[in-house]
Design brief:
Layout (H helix, E strand, L loop, with lengths): L1 H16 L5 H8 L5 H12 L7 H8 L3 H12 L3 H19 L2
């Protein structure tokens, strides 16, 4: 299950990161009705992935309960915030390793 989730994450990330004929349409559909606090948490994860981040930090940032944050994040990104962080870090490591060597 985790490998399937990771595979979907990587495919989605690749599709959204590479410019193509459908880039604008995909971006507008991607998370158009996502709450501001979910977007804020996601942006924080991306900007601070190199730092130590815990679930409580994300909960405080969002200003909602942990269960609400996890449920909503799951709805929009298909994973929990902490799993998203781990996957994002792995993706960044993969990029570094694939460009060096």
């Amino acid at each position: 299950m985790l490998s399937e989730d990771y595979e979907n994450f990587v495919i989605k990330a690749l599709l959204l990161s590479q410019e193509n004929n459908y880039s604008e349409a995909l971006k507008s559909l991607s998370h158009q009705d996502e709450p501001a606090y979910i977007r804020k948490v996601r942006n924080f994860i991306i900007e601070h992935a190199h730092e130590e981040i815990c679930a409580e930090d994300l909960q405080r940032l969002a200003g909602v309960s942990k269960s609400k944050l996890y449920d909503e994040f799951q709805q929009y990104y298909g994973t929990s915030p902490m799993s998203y962080l781990k996957k994002y870090r792995l993706q960044q490591i993969y990029k570094i390793l694939s460009t060096t060597g």
